[in-house]
């Protein structure tokens, strides 16, 4: 008899003979006898393999343990004689991680395990999920990382903006960024696990539909191969870039752009997260701000070259939106000023952090004074947030985190000319 099966059968018999009493329950699950816990782990992580869904084609499978563990942990599922199990040595190593203060198993799981109040449903679901993942990988001859390029934002854009749909055997409906309905017979779904990012199918295809799906994947791959990995734009300047801002061209790594989508629009935009306008009384749920990676160089006094790197499977829309934006130079200039402000403010704060912390810790009521025709005000807001005003505009916010303060410049500083920003920021910080 298989060793793992012997363990399970013998321990099941013992469990029937002796159930844990209330008085045996320990408050700290790490205080149970080590051998007792390891035997329970071996029983739990040994199961009959499901044979009524996806085919079992391997002697071992890579799986992620979750939710029994504190984080997704990769292990190997061994299979033999239709029994699936995790090697006792692996479980022993995972259990002993708590001795180094880095437990792999959650305390709640261990407690339920020892008290015999848990079942194998979670582990069985993990096993079935891996069989589904392996089935899709076998069909497509592609890893989950490659499948992410197949069925990511670029795929959705292609469905909407090209003739791709007419070239495919199935209709693909993007339900959300992790679920795609397939109009096969019967209907199937592509799904991505949010914890492991692995793609799988909801059920196996028929033999006929398997061939059709393979052909669809080949077609999608052909489109992907034509996807550019970079977009380049030359921008003619209507006015020269100031010497103050020019050094920050090399520092700017992203440019923000705005895209719009509704529930019926592009799901990759819609699921990206909402953006609220600064005005409290106006929220547009269909607006989304996206930071687009860029590299900017100045070729001549009146010319900028903007390079947009494109990852495989990612949408071209954010980059093309920027390229077609008539206010692109204004946007670049704004981002350069933001970079300048953050850079100068960080340098100014370096030598004043302790002094600022002392002032903020002692601040009970607003501190107000005028100097050289300018007004300065420091006041405490809700919780541990502090506001620094310059001529009635809030220019810097401070927020307490443990024994230190984080800081952030507000958009009000952008209203100032870049040539005075350095001196202004140093002046603001020197007032502490």
Short description:
By secondary structure, the protein is α+β, with helices and mostly antiparallel strands. The chain contains 14 helices and 18 strands. It has 4 domains: about 5-130, no CATH class; about 140-225; about 230-325, no CATH class; about 340-430, no CATH class.
Number of domains: 4
| Poorly predicted ranges | 1-8, 10-18
Query: Hey, roughly how much beta strand do the residues contain?
Result: 15-25%
Helix tally equals 14
Strand order of the largest sheet: 14-15-16-17-18
Main sheet record? 5 strands, antiparallel
Count of beta strands: 18
- Please tell me how large the radius of gyration is: 30 Å
Q: Helicity level, as a percent range?
A: 25-40%
Mean pLDDT reading? 89
Which class do the helix and strand fractions yield? alpha+beta
N→C terminal distance: 78 Å
Shape assignment: flat
Secondary-structure blueprint:
Elements: H1 3-17, H2 34-44, E1 46-48, E2 60-65, E3 73-80, E4 83-86, H3 88-96, H4 107-114, H5 121-140, H6 144-150, H7 153-161, H8 164-167, E5 172-176, E6 179-182, E7 188-192, E8 199-201, H9 207-225, E9 230-236, E10 254-260, H10 267-270, E11 287-293, E12 295-300, E13 303-309, H11 317-323, H12 328-350, H13 353-362, E14 367-371, E15 374-380, E16 385-390, E17 393-401, E18 404-409, H14 418-430
Antiparallel strand pairs: 1-4, 2-3, 3-4, 5-6, 6-7, 7-8, 9-13, 10-11, 12-13, 14-15, 15-16, 16-17, 17-18
Helix pairs in contact: 1-2, 12-14
